[in-house]
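Moderator note: this is an archived Q&A kept for reference. The question asked for a predicted structure of one protein chain; the sequence and the answer are reproduced below.
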Amino acid sequence: MNARIRPRHAAGAFGIVALAALIEWARGRPPFCRCGHVRLWTGAVHGPENSQQIADWYSLSHIIHGLIFFWLLWWAARRLPLGLRLVIAVTIEAAWELIENAPLVIERYRAATMAWGYSGDSILNSMADIGFMALGFLIAARLPWRASLLLALALELVALVAIRDNLTLNILMLVHPIDAIRVWQGG
Protein backbone atom coordinates (compact mmCIF):
# COMPACT_ATOMS: atom_id res chain seq x y z
CA MET A 1 0.00 0.00 0.00
CA ASN A 2 1.29 3.45 -0.86
CA ALA A 3 1.14 5.17 2.54
CA ARG A 4 2.13 8.58 1.19
CA ILE A 5 -0.17 11.57 1.32
CA ARG A 6 0.32 13.77 -1.74
CA PRO A 7 0.45 17.54 -1.22
CA ARG A 8 -2.75 18.06 -3.22
CA HIS A 9 -4.61 15.65 -0.92
CA ALA A 10 -3.23 17.35 2.18
CA ALA A 11 -4.27 20.72 0.73
CA GLY A 12 -7.73 19.35 -0.02
CA ALA A 13 -8.11 18.06 3.53
CA PHE A 14 -6.96 21.41 5.00
CA GLY A 15 -9.34 23.21 2.66
CA ILE A 16 -12.27 21.14 3.91
CA VAL A 17 -11.30 21.87 7.52
CA ALA A 18 -11.09 25.60 6.73
CA LEU A 19 -14.48 25.52 5.02
CA ALA A 20 -16.03 23.73 8.01
CA ALA A 21 -14.54 26.36 10.34
CA LEU A 22 -15.98 29.16 8.20
CA ILE A 23 -19.42 27.53 8.18
CA GLU A 24 -19.35 27.12 11.95
CA TRP A 25 -18.25 30.75 12.35
CA ALA A 26 -21.07 31.89 10.04
CA ARG A 27 -23.50 29.89 12.19
CA GLY A 28 -22.34 31.78 15.27
CA ARG A 29 -20.22 29.11 16.95
CA PRO A 30 -17.61 30.63 19.27
CA PRO A 31 -14.07 30.40 17.88
CA PHE A 32 -12.57 29.58 21.29
CA CYS A 33 -13.69 28.87 24.81
CA ARG A 34 -15.61 31.83 26.20
CA CYS A 35 -13.46 31.42 29.32
CA GLY A 36 -10.81 33.49 27.55
CA HIS A 37 -7.94 31.02 27.37
CA VAL A 38 -6.86 28.07 25.24
CA ARG A 39 -5.81 24.78 26.82
CA LEU A 40 -4.42 21.66 25.23
CA TRP A 41 -6.58 19.45 27.49
CA THR A 42 -9.61 19.68 29.70
CA GLY A 43 -10.72 16.65 31.64
CA ALA A 44 -13.86 17.95 33.35
CA VAL A 45 -16.67 16.35 31.34
CA HIS A 46 -19.39 18.50 32.88
CA GLY A 47 -17.26 21.63 33.14
CA PRO A 48 -17.69 24.74 31.03
CA GLU A 49 -14.51 24.03 29.06
CA ASN A 50 -15.52 20.57 27.81
CA SER A 51 -15.83 20.60 24.02
CA GLN A 52 -14.31 24.09 24.07
CA GLN A 53 -10.58 23.38 24.31
CA ILE A 54 -8.28 21.50 21.93
CA ALA A 55 -8.72 18.06 23.49
CA ASP A 56 -11.02 16.39 26.00
CA TRP A 57 -12.17 12.86 26.77
CA TYR A 58 -14.29 12.84 23.61
CA SER A 59 -11.17 13.30 21.49
CA LEU A 60 -10.67 9.56 21.96
CA SER A 61 -13.89 8.88 20.07
CA HIS A 62 -12.67 10.98 17.15
CA ILE A 63 -9.49 8.90 16.96
CA ILE A 64 -11.77 5.86 16.79
CA HIS A 65 -13.72 7.54 13.97
CA GLY A 66 -10.44 7.71 12.04
CA LEU A 67 -9.68 4.04 12.66
CA ILE A 68 -13.17 3.10 11.47
CA PHE A 69 -13.10 5.40 8.44
CA PHE A 70 -9.72 4.06 7.34
CA TRP A 71 -10.89 0.44 7.39
CA LEU A 72 -14.29 1.18 5.84
CA LEU A 73 -12.64 3.12 3.02
CA TRP A 74 -9.97 0.45 2.62
CA TRP A 75 -12.77 -2.08 2.20
CA ALA A 76 -14.95 0.09 -0.08
CA ALA A 77 -12.34 2.04 -2.04
CA ARG A 78 -8.91 0.48 -1.54
CA ARG A 79 -7.90 1.32 -5.11
CA LEU A 80 -8.12 5.03 -4.35
CA PRO A 81 -4.89 6.65 -3.18
CA LEU A 82 -4.50 6.88 0.59
CA GLY A 83 -4.55 10.68 0.38
CA LEU A 84 -7.87 10.74 -1.43
CA ARG A 85 -9.34 8.35 1.13
CA LEU A 86 -8.09 10.74 3.82
CA VAL A 87 -9.86 13.62 2.05
CA ILE A 88 -13.06 11.56 2.00
CA ALA A 89 -12.69 10.77 5.72
CA VAL A 90 -12.03 14.43 6.55
CA THR A 91 -15.13 15.39 4.55
CA ILE A 92 -17.27 12.89 6.48
CA GLU A 93 -15.89 14.06 9.83
CA ALA A 94 -16.32 17.73 8.91
CA ALA A 95 -19.93 17.02 7.92
CA TRP A 96 -20.47 15.29 11.25
CA GLU A 97 -19.02 18.29 13.12
CA LEU A 98 -21.42 20.59 11.29
CA ILE A 99 -24.36 18.30 12.08
CA GLU A 100 -23.27 17.78 15.70
CA ASN A 101 -23.18 21.53 16.29
CA ALA A 102 -26.61 22.21 14.82
CA PRO A 103 -29.15 23.40 17.46
CA LEU A 104 -31.43 20.39 16.95
CA VAL A 105 -28.60 17.91 17.57
CA ILE A 106 -27.28 19.88 20.55
CA GLU A 107 -30.76 19.65 22.09
CA ARG A 108 -30.86 15.91 21.38
CA TYR A 109 -27.51 15.47 23.13
CA ARG A 110 -28.85 17.36 26.15
CA ALA A 111 -32.05 15.33 26.27
CA ALA A 112 -30.73 11.84 25.54
CA THR A 113 -27.10 11.59 26.64
CA MET A 114 -25.02 12.49 29.67
CA ALA A 115 -24.21 15.85 28.03
CA TRP A 116 -26.70 17.76 30.19
CA GLY A 117 -25.10 21.18 29.86
CA TYR A 118 -23.68 20.69 26.38
CA SER A 119 -23.80 23.86 24.31
CA GLY A 120 -21.91 22.62 21.27
CA ASP A 121 -18.25 22.74 20.38
CA SER A 122 -16.05 25.77 19.97
CA ILE A 123 -14.63 26.03 16.46
CA LEU A 124 -11.21 25.22 17.93
CA ASN A 125 -12.51 21.99 19.46
CA SER A 126 -14.48 21.05 16.37
CA MET A 127 -11.46 21.47 14.09
CA ALA A 128 -9.27 19.60 16.59
CA ASP A 129 -11.83 16.77 16.51
CA ILE A 130 -11.32 16.54 12.75
CA GLY A 131 -7.57 16.48 13.40
CA PHE A 132 -7.96 13.64 15.91
CA MET A 133 -9.96 11.71 13.33
CA ALA A 134 -7.17 12.25 10.78
CA LEU A 135 -4.66 11.03 13.39
CA GLY A 136 -6.70 7.85 13.89
CA PHE A 137 -6.95 7.38 10.12
CA LEU A 138 -3.18 7.72 9.69
CA ILE A 139 -2.50 5.38 12.62
CA ALA A 140 -4.79 2.78 11.03
CA ALA A 141 -2.93 3.18 7.73
CA ARG A 142 0.18 1.91 9.51
CA LEU A 143 -1.36 -0.79 11.72
CA PRO A 144 -2.75 -4.20 10.87
CA TRP A 145 -6.52 -4.34 11.31
CA ARG A 146 -6.28 -6.37 14.53
CA ALA A 147 -4.06 -3.74 16.12
CA SER A 148 -6.51 -1.02 15.02
CA LEU A 149 -9.34 -3.00 16.59
CA LEU A 150 -7.41 -3.44 19.84
CA LEU A 151 -6.58 0.27 19.91
CA ALA A 152 -10.25 1.19 19.37
CA LEU A 153 -11.33 -1.17 22.16
CA ALA A 154 -8.65 0.21 24.48
CA LEU A 155 -9.74 3.81 23.81
CA GLU A 156 -13.38 2.84 24.42
CA LEU A 157 -12.45 1.18 27.73
CA VAL A 158 -10.32 4.12 28.87
CA ALA A 159 -13.19 6.54 28.26
CA LEU A 160 -15.71 4.18 29.85
CA VAL A 161 -13.65 3.87 33.04
CA ALA A 162 -12.64 7.54 33.16
CA ILE A 163 -15.97 9.24 32.38
CA ARG A 164 -18.64 6.54 32.10
CA ASP A 165 -19.10 7.41 28.45
CA ASN A 166 -17.57 6.47 25.12
CA LEU A 167 -18.41 6.34 21.43
CA THR A 168 -20.55 3.20 21.78
CA LEU A 169 -22.64 4.60 24.64
CA ASN A 170 -22.90 7.97 22.94
CA ILE A 171 -24.38 6.42 19.80
CA LEU A 172 -26.65 4.12 21.80
CA MET A 173 -27.99 6.97 23.93
CA LEU A 174 -28.54 9.20 20.90
CA VAL A 175 -30.43 6.50 18.99
CA HIS A 176 -32.24 4.72 21.81
CA PRO A 177 -31.81 6.28 25.28
CA ILE A 178 -31.87 3.81 28.16
CA ASP A 179 -32.76 5.22 31.55
CA ALA A 180 -30.60 2.72 33.47
CA ILE A 181 -27.52 3.83 31.49
CA ARG A 182 -28.36 7.51 32.00
CA VAL A 183 -28.64 6.93 35.78
CA TRP A 184 -25.37 4.97 35.84
CA GLN A 185 -23.61 7.69 33.85
CA GLY A 186 -24.85 10.30 36.30
CA GLY A 187 -22.89 8.54 39.04
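Archived answer notes: The radius of gyration is 17 Å.
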